[in-house]
Amino acid sequence: MSAEALYQHMRKKLAHVVPEGELRLKAEIASQIIQLKQEKNALILGHNYMEPALFHSIPDFTGDSLELSRKAAETDKDIIVFCGVKFMAETAKILSPDKKVLLPAKRGGCSLAESITAEDVRALRKRYPGTPVVSYINTYAEVKAETDVCCTSGNAVQVVESLNSETVIFLPDEFLAQNVARETGKHIIFPVPISLNGDKAELDYQIIGWRGRCEVHEKFTVEDIENVRRQFPDVVILAHPECRPEVTAAADFSGSTSAMINHVKKLSAQQYLLLTECSMGDNIVAENPDKEMLRLCSVRCPHMNEITLEDTLKALQFEQYEITVPEDIRARAAQSVERMIAIG
Predict the structure, then answer these.
(1) What digits encode the pLDDT tens for the residues 231-274?
(2) Which superfamily does CATH assign the domain made up of 3-110+304-318 to?
(3) Class of the 113-213 domain?
(4) What is the pTM of this model?
(5) Which residues are within 8 A (CB) of 150 and not within 5 positions of it... i.e. 6 or more apart?
(6) Could you give the CA distance from residue 261 to residue 288 in angstroms, rounded to a whole number?
(7) Domain 217-293: which topology?
(8) What's the chain's Rg over C-alpha atoms?
(9) pLDDT of residue 80 exceeding 60
(10) The sheet that has 168-171: what strands, in order across it?
(11) How confident is the model at residue 1, as a pLDDT?
């Protein structure tokens, strides 16, 4: 696609979201990327949190991390460029070991993924022997390898219930764990280090959580919701399940990024507010010009912000920042991801 044709396509969707001059510049870069991905037989995946100019131009597929990893597993392309953060690209590599997977960022971290290690999981297994471990997809490969089954924010409750276990270790997001506990009627604990716990028995628990948080979603509060409702009584408020449980309880809807996108499309209300990452808000605005998103969503994920059109072009040009996962870790991690996929 020529830069001019791409500019016209992007302008139609993003004129009220991205400045004119920036659109011109981004269209030129996007055109080069599209040409290069054809030459190199590459597939480009764009997470819902990508900046609008990238999200609405170069990806072959857009969606949440699991949707995109599934697309990666199905492709016959030689190269997969994952426009997301590292744990997402790792998941694509876990499911597509024969593909070259590139991440258009040197680091592409995540506060949740970095909150727990494989050693932490092994220690929890030792402390709670025989208890199945559920790990959120937002974890690194070494943690997935120590896990019985993964989950997403959209199917966490379903995964926990599928285990038919009296107790479950749920890692690493403390707020998602609390939201799952509320929905399943289970009592949750967050264990303290044994050195601090002494010989105290831990009684009355069905979910064992972990103190990991998303640095974006932890910033939203019930006070934010109350302030908005005072000004806009009819607004529909959507919150991601990584938000605090009191926030998801006060919202009108809570769901994964894909569920939020679909919910906005079906809304009859004209005004809505998203309690999630702000670039996703811009992408939803571009797809729903007939509805008004209140411009109160202002938290940008600094790690997602590392992924740019410029760096995506470099990733393809030099095939740089390739994601690798040791085979012994990959094979065990694949089992936990595939179990999740089988559940739904």
Answers:
(1) 999 999 999 999 999 999 999 999 999 999 999 999 999 899 99
(2) NadA-like (3.40.50.10800)
(3) alpha beta
(4) 0.91
(5) 134, 135, 136, 137, 139, 144, 159, 336, 337, 339, 340
(6) 10
(7) Rossmann fold (3.40.50)
(8) 21
(9) yes
(10) 149-151, 133-136, 168-171, 207-208, 188-189
(11) 77
